[in-house]
Design goal:
About 35% of the residues are buried. By secondary structure, this protein is α/β, with parallel strands linked by helices. It contains five helices and ten strands. It folds into two domains: about 120 residues, Pectate Lyase C-like, CATH 2.160.20; about 70 residues, no CATH class. The N and C termini lie far apart (about 35 Å). The chain is globular, with a radius of gyration of 17 Å. The protein has a four-stranded parallel sheet with strand order 5-7-9-10, with no helix packed on it. A three-stranded parallel sheet has the order 1-2-3, with no helix packed on it. A three-stranded parallel sheet has the order 4-6-8, with no helix packed on it. The longest helix is centred in the C-terminal third of the chain and has 11 residues. Helix 1 packs parallel to helix 4 and helix 3 crosses helix 4.
């Protein structure tokens, strides 16, 4: 289990790991790799993530109070329902990253107007054709997808941010064509949307 208190864990690789509900306090993870990591429900308070990378990482319901992300790199990263009080994003880089329904009071040094950041107070409404909606709803019934929680919200409704990411990457027509084939490739547990993206790219 990824539980550290007052620990020195600099320059490590946690890539692809499932760190759901992990708990760490006042630990230093500087210059570590957190690409494609699931941090759903994790408590990482007063920790240092300076210079870390978070490509395809998902902070869902994550408590990051008073942690530092100076010079960190966020790409295709989602903060959903995250607690960000006192978090320091000084000189952090963002590319196609989302803040959704997150507590953003007292954040330090976050330029919310930079083009790589999109902020939503709640799950956004998006326009999609009925064929795509039907394909997504069918995929959401798959046991591996249900367990991953990457396509639904805590209210069991469609995660429109995940859909937005898929639509922008592949286009609606290709998604409709590909999603019906995805289930044939799902044979194990997974934890982030990046896994479905890789399957579609493979298809």
């Amino acid at each position: 289990m990824f539980n550290y208190n007052n620990a020195d864990k600099k320059n490590k690789s946690f890539m692809y790991q499932n760190l759901q509900k992990s708990k760490s306090y006042n630990s230093d993870f500087s210059n570590s790799n957190f690409d494609y990591v699931c941090l759903r429900g994790a408590h990482l308070k007063s920790c240092t993530f300076d210079g870390c990378t978070f490509r395809g990482a998902e902070f869902t319901g994550t408590n990051l109070k008073d942690s530092s992300f100076k010079n960190a790199i966020f790409e295709n990263t989602v903060f959903e329902g995250a607690k960000l009080e006192g978090v320091d994003f000084r000189d952090a880089q963002f590319k196609n990253s989302f803040f959704v329904s997150s507590q953003m009071g007292n954040i330090k040094c976050l330029d919310v107007d930079q083009p790589g950041i999109r902020i939503f107070s709640e799950m956004p409404e998006i326009q999609m054709g009925e064929p795509l909606r039907a394909a997504i709803e069918k995929l959401m019934q798959n046991d591996f997808v249900k367990k991953s929680r990457v396509m639904d919200t805590k209210d069991k409704t469609m995660n429109t941010v995940s859909v937005m990411i898929l639509m922008e990457k592949f286009g609606e027509e290709r998604l409709v064509e590909s999603l019906g084939k995805v289930e044939a490739y799902l044979d194990r547990d997974f934890y982030t949307l990046s896994y479905i993206i890789k399957i579609i790219e493979k298809i």
